[in-house]
Design goal:
5-stranded mixed β-sheet; 322 residues; single chain; alpha/beta
């Protein structure tokens, strides 16, 4: 009789353990992230690699995208929930067409101390000014954001991208190679391409941080954003994900150089280049200043100026504020 009771007890414990395991697994909250392979996504890498997502009880599923518009399309369609290194301009365009669909919870970009973008030319190029790019081929990231940025920069230097030069859309991994092989004459680049091209000794900077002059200082080309559908339907998961990213931002503020070794697993950088790459300013929504909001407003203004956005839209309308 005692033997039977023991067997029953053991069976109950086993079944209970299995049930507990199933419940724990089913209770795991999954958040799907997208990112562009740029240094702007560092907080995502840190939160994942240091276990901050797991610590908050969520599992981060992370997908790399090669073009900025692909990230926004994935957010709008519900294929991902949140994104890092997404495009500020494309976020604004999407919000103008589908109001209250996206919220920006973080920004990343450059200022006078942080080089986040530059116009590059070949090391032996005779091009000495933006005016010299007339009749040339200029590489840009795919999508409407960087085409509009290029239009703004060049038009303010008396060049029309539809008449005076040719824009060539190139994903980040192809850009340095295209400049080296002279498929393009110049490149409007973000990091890590600036550092990669310099390390290969194939480039020189024609204009450092042009958007600080032609748009705003600071200039935030990258954002962290989240779909409003996810905000409304998964408030607890969102809170945990934001907490994990805030922990990553705190680490970045404390000692960003100690975190550079996370780059090679996510973006095309060797450990040596990861130690040298220029890093942008990183900010979460709780730390946005009036200057930051004004900078985003001025960026949105560029898209209005060239009629990419035709409906009324303010930056405040798509900034996360909870």
């Amino acid at each position: 009789m005692k033997k039977i009771i023991s067997i029953v007890v053991i069976a109950i414990l086993i079944i209970g353990g299995i049930t507990l395991s199933i419940n724990e697994k089913s209770a795991e909250q999954v958040v799907r992230f997208g990112y562009l392979p740029a240094v702007h996504a560092l907080p995502l890498f840190v939160a994942q690699e240091k276990g901050y997502f797991a610590e908050q009880g969520i599992r981060a599923e992370i997908t790399k995208f090669e073009a900025p518009n692909q990230i926004i399309d994935a957010l709008i369609s519900g294929h991902i929930d949140m994104a890092l290194a997404a495009a500020t301009g494309i976020t604004a365009i999407a919000e103008s067409k589908n109001p209250n669909s996206l919220k920006v919870f973080a920004v990343a970009g450059g200022d006078k101390e942080h080089i986040a973008e530059a116009i590059l030319v070949g090391k032996d190029s005779s091009i000495a000014s933006i005016a010299d790019l007339k009749g040339k081929k200029v590489g840009v990231l795919p999508g409407i954001q960087w085409k509009t940025i290029a239009r703004n920069i060049f038009l303010k230097n008396s060049l029309d991208i539809d008449k005076d030069l040719t824009l060539v859309e190139l994903a980040i991994p192809l850009q340095a190679q295209a400049l080296a092989s002279k498929q393009i004459d110049a490149l409007l680049a973000i990091e890590p391409v600036i550092t990669v091209a310099d390390s290969l000794d194939i480039s020189k900077i024609l204009v450092k941080s042009p958007n600080l002059v032609y748009v705003s200082d600071p200039f935030y080309a990258g954002v962290g954003n989240v779909s409003v559908k996810f905000v409304n339907e998964n408030p607890e998961s969102l809170k945990k994900a934001l907490t994990a990213l805030e922990m990553a931002h705190a680490d970045i503020d404390k000692d960003v150089d100690s975190l550079r070794h996370y780059f090679p697993a996510y973006i095309p950088l060797t450990p040596e280049l990861a130690s040298k790459v220029n890093l942008p300013v990183y900010k979460m929504y709780k730390d946005f200043t009036s200057a930051d909001i004004d900078a985003i407003e001025k960026f949105v203004g560029v898209f209005k100026e060239y009629n990419v956005i035709t409906s009324p839209l303010s930056a405040a309308a798509f900034l996360f504020d909870k």
